[in-house]
Amino acid sequence: MSRNTKIGLYIAFTVLFVSFTFYGWQLAKTPNINAHTDDAKPFSLYIPKGATFESVIDTLQKHQVLENEMTFRFVSKLMKYPERVKAGHYRMKPGTGNYDAIKKLRSGSQDPIELTFNSSIRLKSELINKVGSKFAFGPEPLRELLDNPDTCKRYGLDTTTIICLFIPNTYELFWTAKPTALLSRMADEYKKFWTPARKAKAAALGLSQTEVQTLASIVRAETIKSDEQPRVAGVYLNRLKRGIKLEADPTVVFANNDFTIRRVLNKHLAYNSPYNTYMYAGLPPGPINLPPPTAIDAVLNPEQHDYLFFVAKADFSGYHTFSRNMTEHIANARIYQRALNERKIMK
C-alpha cells in the first residue's frame, strides 16, 4: 500500500470518526426534553414499581415531553437503560439532553415530592386519602396503619389521636417511600416540634400534648385570625379551669359530620356525641382538624384575661366580640343573630 493511500485512508477514518463522534455527541447532548418550549416547567415523571421501558416511553410521549423519540430510544439502548428501569419520581428539566436524562433515570436518582397538608383536613379519612394518594403506596396501606391500635400505641397515641402526629407543614419525601417510613418521618417532625420549652408550657397548663393539639384544633376552627387565637385560647382555658362546658360550635359541627353548617341550631346541639362540647364537659376525644403550629402556640401562650364567652362580630370580619358574663354574651349574640337573619343564613 502506497504512502499516499495510507494517508488517504487515515484521513477518511479520521473524518468518519469525527463525524460519528459529533453525531453521537448530538444524539446525547442535544436538548430533547421539551426543548422548544420557552416557558416549560419541569415534567414530573412517575415510574411505578414493575414499569417497563415501553411504559416509560408511552408516558413521555403521552405528555409530549420528548422532541425526538427515536434518538431517546437509541441512546437508551446504548446506555442499557431498558434493562435498568427504576421506580421513582423524576423531574425532567426542559432542555435536558438524552444522556443526562437517561443517566438520571437509570441511576434511580429520584427527586423528592412535596407533601403539604393543613387544617383544612378535619377527618382521619381525609388525611389518609390526601396524604396516601401522594405516594406510590396509595391510601389503603396508610389506612391500615392509622387504624391499627398497636401502630398508634407505638407513637404514644391511639386510633383517634394518631392525627396529632401530622403537624401541618410542607415536607419533602420520596414518592416510593413506604407508609411506615412516612410515619417515622412524621414522628421525627412531631418530636422536633414538641421542644422541651413547649412541653413545659403544656405541663404548666395541666394539659398533655394531645390535649393541647385538641384545644388548638378548636381554636383554629373558631378563628383563622392568628392575632386573635391567643385570646380565644384564653377563653377556653378559663372555662376548663372553672369546670364550665366549652360549648364550642365547631365541635358540634364535627360531631354532626356536616361541614356545610353555618348556623348551629338546637337540632345540632341535641346530637349525642363525645365531640359535642355542649353536651359533654371537657375536651373532646381528639382534634377536630389538624391545627397549625400557630394555633398550638396560641394555646401554649394564651392571653391572660377573664373572658368566658365570645361570638362572631356582625361585620363578618372573622373577628369576635368577647364578654365576661352571660348577660353581655346574650346581647352580643343577638346582634350577630340579627346579622345572620339579614343575610338569610338560616342553617
UniProtKB/TrEMBL annotation:
The chain crosses the membrane at residues 7-25. The gene is mltG. This is Endolytic murein transglycosylase. It catalyses: a peptidoglycan chain = a peptidoglycan chain with N-acetyl-1,6-anhydromuramyl-[peptide] at the reducing end + a peptidoglycan chain with N-acetylglucosamine at the non-reducing end. It comes from Fibrivirga algicola. It is a single-pass membrane protein. It is an enzyme of class 4 (lyase). Belongs to the transglycosylase MltG family. It is found in: Cell membrane.
